[in-house]
Amino acid sequence: MNPHSRIVITGVGLTAPNGNDLPTFRDNLLKGIANIQRMETRYMGSVLAGVCNYEATRYQKKRDLRTGTRAGSIGIYCAQEAIKNAGINWETTDKSRVGVYVGTTEHGNVETENEIFNISQFGYDTKYWSHHHNPRTVANNPAGEITINMGITGPHYAIGAACAAGNAGLIQAVQMLRLNEVDLAIAGGVSESVHTFGIFAAFKSQGALAYHDDPNKASRPFDLARNGIVVSEGGALYCVERLDDALARGAPILCEIIGYAMNSDATDTVLPNPERQTQCMRLALKKAGIAAQAVHIVNTHATSTPQGDIQEVVAINDVFANCPDTYINNTKSFIGHAMGAAGALELAGNIPAFTDGYVHPTINVDNLDPACKVHNLVVDKPLKPSKIDVILNNSFGMLGINSALIVRKFN
Fold first, then answer.
1. Which of 68, 148, 169, 250 would staple 187 via disulfide (CB 3.0–4.6 Å)?
2. Within 10 Å of residue 384's Cβ, how many Cβ atoms?
3. What residues in the chain have per-residue pLDDT under 50?
4. Distance in angstroms (rounded) separating the CA atoms of residues 370 and 268
């Protein structure tokens, strides 16, 4: 197999706080419609969160929802929708040649917290501990639940890459397709983060949990008044194929993956390193064989943390300083931070730009932080440049893991 085979995306299934399919999600991004809500969480009371409202029973029985996990359920919904969107005849597909690569941040915290709380009601008697706990909490769970639901017998695993995981899932798909390990990959990222109080408590303790009187204005990257992360759930999984295979079956081609890179800061557990982020973007451009000037949209990772947003702007200004046709946006301002699903969801929100011609805006930037000044930041309203051919998607995560994925309009 040619290690340089061209790789394309032919389908996407997603659920986000503001949409359960790509057309709805995209429409809300262009219209400036966010969906963050107040919710009650154990021990902490009211918090702000991005919560998904997808039809889980479309692809799962109620019994399976009771014994499985939220992350697995999100993954199943997204995978099934991706196959449908890609126009794949699932009945005739050789499922031994399908790989499932699901990026995640944390997994199993929800189930463990729930089990501990449940046995606390019975004097911590472990006979009340669920026998479903082990399969629920193993690291490969979300990917594994997808294979069981869909009868996939090819390889599956979850990729722990913190908040770079969505990009990492897609990168793994590219590599496995080029190695001829699979003929079709279902790849991207999922997150069930809003169902664990621990993540809210940790961000609050760190001083990084967002608050605002208006929930839909709480996620505000680059704004001077930003005060932290809005924790969200969601998922986006893609059908990824070799171009030759996609053309042979007459598949709809959403875009081509032309470059990617991952690296590590090796400096701090939470504070980003702009030098390493710069190196990551430059390496992705090198692998894609393009100059920075060829990129028309950079979707930022910016999470609304005071320091993190600044560090990324430093890196972007370094790479794209002389790129008058490169526009910058942010998707978290609409949906919060979907952790392991973030990169995959944010890419999905931008891919339709290849057909509708618009750069979706960043919202909630009422007063731009001077330290976050970046050229061509699209704010409040969509912008229609003369051309959109290339998108670079940034996703960075804790422990200093960085990813950049580059997709191109297919012609």
1. 169
2. 10
3. none
4. 25
